[in-house]
Design brief:
The complex is a heterodimer.
Chain A lengths: L4 H21 L1 E7 L7 H15 L3 E7 L3 H13 L6 E5 L3 H6 L13 H7 L4 H4 L3 E2 L2 E2 L2 E13 H6 L11 H14 L5 E4 L6 H11 L17 H15 L11 H9 L3 E7 L3 H7 L4 E4 L9 E10 L5 H15 L1 H11 L6 H5 L1 H9 L5 H5 L3 E2 L7 H16 L5 H20 L1
Parallel strand pairs in A: 1-2, 1-3, 7-8, 10-11
Antiparallel strand pairs in A: 3-10, 4-5, 6-8, 6-9, 6-10
Helix pairs in contact in A: 9-10, 18-19
Chain B lengths: L1 H38 L2 E2 L8 E2 L3 H7 L2 H33 L5 H13 L2 H12 L5 H8 L11 H29 L3 H10 L3 H12 L1 H16 L3 H6 L11 H11 L3 H29 L4
Helix pairs in contact in B: 1-13, 3-4, 3-7, 3-10, 4-7, 7-10, 12-13
The chains are: A alpha/beta, B mainly alpha.
Chain lengths: 426, 295
């Protein structure tokens, strides 16, 4: 009954013409997807899916929320093993190597047929494609993609005698401003928080890249964790606590950090841009969003989830899945998704839509993640990615909690990762 | 002759009664166990190659893995930290709410509430209790003039924090069993000892506590099982961090199987856990059961 009349009538007409055919040919798709930032993103997805289905009555999509990125991968992989594989899913962009090693996914290059489809494949920001491609083929289509951005509390800056409109440009400024806030608040407020649970390797990668260093090789077979530039980066992160007294001791929880920022217990936080809309709707103070500070260069790894199509689906299902993915990543939808969440519009065309242009004009922070893309780098992704990331996570946490020096911790992570990657590096 | 047939028929009847349980057990317990043991003896094929039999090499590798030992040690600490405390608390609470008490039903319900919360929900609540700047615990400490602690982010505190939450979650559940057992104790015993002038203290130690032994044993086994199968709240609270400070055996199995896609290592750890639990079960049946007095 919610359908408007003209639409209902066209559907009815189409139905009368080919009622039997539509029913016989309707395709059922199952898709798993993650949410890693909290908020009512499941509603947003449900609405999009509903809209898609009303436009494509011959395709049914069942979208299943499956937890964070790791949980979603587990759900999808266990479903495949149980012989009940989904046809498509949104999974971590960096799951690529593992999915390929398990022969789970197909390349979009093998699915596209028309020039229009090939054009679509080339329509995304190249920086977002990096994690989705291997050996010249595209396996992942960007969807809920992010970079790390700096959120700062303008009121807190003002109260500490800093210029509320000027976020820190570089590492030194960030440490000094953070220490200033801490001091001015008489110890009530921290200067800066960088999360170190959940995805510590991701944050560390940003520090390392800002120091001019990339942590892994292009082909995912080698890592460079204990390079002097990486060690220096971790030492800087640790020094925010030990030297500058601007960040609390121990690890900082990914999941509660946004709340910390909203309750003004920290003046700055590093977090995914996927939080932007939630922060905007909940903050009782004036805040800004900036690119991350630099040391020798600006930088942030990209992050987030890509669409994948699975090998086990029939050809017809794979085509239908691609139709759905094309619809979901079309500029208008990418723009709407970006406005409702804070995630990036995945293509330049998304930022050319009226909706997103107006939004950016009215709310400038919405463009920061896109602008930062110019200084982006691929997220840490290697063969045996789970184990390699875990080795680095442990090193970061060991250094931040004072169990090891930055150098010891990264040496250990490097040893571990080399052991795991031995057979791929040959 | 006729007697023989009816005997056979009874045997068949008995076997048929057992069949459903046997099928379920075989499918969900024995078969997976056997597959797991087999998996732990093989190295999976690499890029399409067939799996290779390597004997006990996977075990050798596991025992050389310092993380495995750290996780095993964590799990032992976790068991020692949770089991006696939650049992003692459960018994204390049961004795308390078994007595004459104003608003008894309400108190009983309050004690039982943590049990009916899903683990994930409870962990989410506690994550905000523990949050260093905005959390309940540090706000309370702050009000008393103490500076707070990073409960889950400090490696020396994290495992203890997880233990405290588990005790909170479990004690109410075990209380229910004690409460039921206490109400099953014949009131004549109390009357008789009152006539004798026995003190409450010695009545508890000489009558109540021994009569509760079967319950204690049952609760103990349950607590032990729970201590080995912790995985859900680690997802929310710590993900095994910082730097493996709160990583426990089953979570490590999960990580290996699903985050690292290393089914072999996961199978090997599982077999080790099964062997340890088999030893514990043997001890239970041969020693503890004989010493327990059933009413």
């Amino acid at each position: 009954m919610r359908l408007r009349i003209p639409f209902a009538m066209t559907t009815l007409a189409a139905g009368l013409l080919s009622a039997a055919q539509v029913n016989a040919n309707s395709v059922d798709l199952t898709m798993y997807y993650p949410v890693s930032v909290g908020g009512a993103l499941t509603d947003v997805i449900d609405n999009l899916v509903e809209e898609f289905e009303s436009e494509h009555p011959d395709i049914n999509v069942e979208a299943i929320y499956a937890g964070n990125y790791d949980d979603t991968r587990v759900r999808a992989m266990s479903a495949i093993e149980a012989g009940d594989a989904p046809q498509l899913s949104v999974l971590f962009s960096i799951d690529l190597y593992e999915l390929i090693e398990q022969n789970a996914i197909v390349a979009f290059d093998d699915l596209v047929e028309t020039d229009e489809e090939r054009e679509w494949l080339d329509s995304f920001y190249p920086g977002l494609m990096e994690n989705g491609q291997l050996d010249g083929k595209t396996y992942g289509i960007p969807f809920q993609r992010s970079t790390i951005v700096l959120f700062w509390n303008k009121d807190a800056f003002e109260a500490a005698g800093l210029d509320p409109e000027t976020p820190p440009e570089n590492w030194q400024e960030m440490a000094e401003m953070a220490a200033t806030v801490r001091e001015a608040s008489g110890g009530d407020q921290w200067g800066v928080m960088v999360p170190s649970t959940g995805y510590p390797y991701w944050m560390f990668q940003a520090f390392a890249f800002q120091n001019g260093h990339r942590l892994m090789s292009e082909d995912g077979t080698e890592v460079y964790f204990n390079d002097p530039a990486a060690i220096e980066a971790l030492e800087y992160w640790v020094s925010l606590t030990t030297e500058h007294n601007a960040m609390p001791d121990g690890t900082i929880e990914w999941g509660t950090l946004r709340q910390n920022f909203l309750e003004e217990s920290t003046a700055m936080m590093w977090h995914t841009t996927g939080n932007l809309t939630a922060v905007r709707s909940e903050a009782n103070f004036d805040f800004g969003v900036a690119m991350l500070p630099m040391n020798t260069q600006r930088g942030s790894p990209t992050g987030g989830g890509n669409f994948y199509i699975f090998e086990d689906a029939s050809e017809e299902e794979q085509r239908a899945a691609m139709t759905f993915i094309r619809w979901m990543t079309a500029p208008e939808r990418a723009a709407a998704w970006s406005i409702e969440t804070g995630y990036m519009g995945v293509s330049p065309a998304a930022y050319e839509t009226d909706a997103l242009q107006n939004y950016v004009e009215e709310f400038a922070p919405a463009a920061v993640a896109r602008d930062q893309l110019e200084h982006g780098t691929a997220e840490l992704s290697t063969y045996q990615g789970g184990r390699v990331r875990r080795a680095l996570d442990n090193a970061v946490q060991a250094a931040l909690t004072g169990q090891m020096t930055s150098e010891e911790a990264l040496n250990q992570a490097q040893r571990e990762a080399e052991g795991v990657l031995r057979r791929y590096a040959r | 002759m006729a007697e023989m047939t009816s005997h056979r028929r009874m045997q068949l009847y008995g076997a048929m009664l057992l069949l459903p349980a046997a099928v379920l057990l075989a499918t969900f317990a024995y078969l997976p166990t056997v597959t797991t043991v087999i998996n732990s003896l093989f190295l999976p094929g690499f890029r399409g190659a067939p799996a290779e039999f390597v004997g006990l090499e996977n075990y050798q590798l596991l025992f050389d893995d310092p993380t495995f030992w750290k996780v095993a040690r964590n799990n032992l600490i976790y068991a020692v930290g949770t089991i006696p405390t939650s049992i003692a608390l459960a018994l204390g609470m049961a004795l308390f709410v078994n007595g004459k008490l104003r608003g008894r039903g309400f108190v009983r319900m309050a004690y039982f509430t943590p049990t009916i919360l899903p683990m994930i929900a409870a962990a989410n609540i506690w994550m905000f209790f523990y949050a260093p700047q905005i959390g309940l615990f540090n706000k309370l400490l702050g009000a008393l003039g103490f500076s707070g602690v990073n409960w889950l982010g400090d490696p020396s505190m994290a495992l203890g924090s997880v233990i405290v939450m588990s005790v909170w979650k479990e004690a109410g559940f075990f209380m229910i069993f004690y409460l039921a057992a206490l109400q099953g104790i014949a009131p004549e015993l109390k009357e008789a000892s009152d006539l004798e002038g026995t003190s409450r203290w010695s009545f508890f130690w000489r009558v109540t506590f021994p009569l509760l032994m079967p319950t204690t044993l049952f609760v103990l086994i349950n607590a032990l099982i729970n201590a080995v199968r912790v995985v859900d709240h680690l997802f929310i609270l710590t993900k095994g961090g910082p730097n493996n400070a709160t990583n426990l055996l089953l979570y490590y199995v999960y990580e290996n199987a699903f985050s690292f896609f290393d089914r072999t290592t996961a199978a090997t750890i599982t077999v080790v856990i099964l062997l340890v639990l088999a030893v514990v079960a043997t001890v239970k049946f041969t020693i503890l059961d004989r010493r327990t007095h059933y009413q």
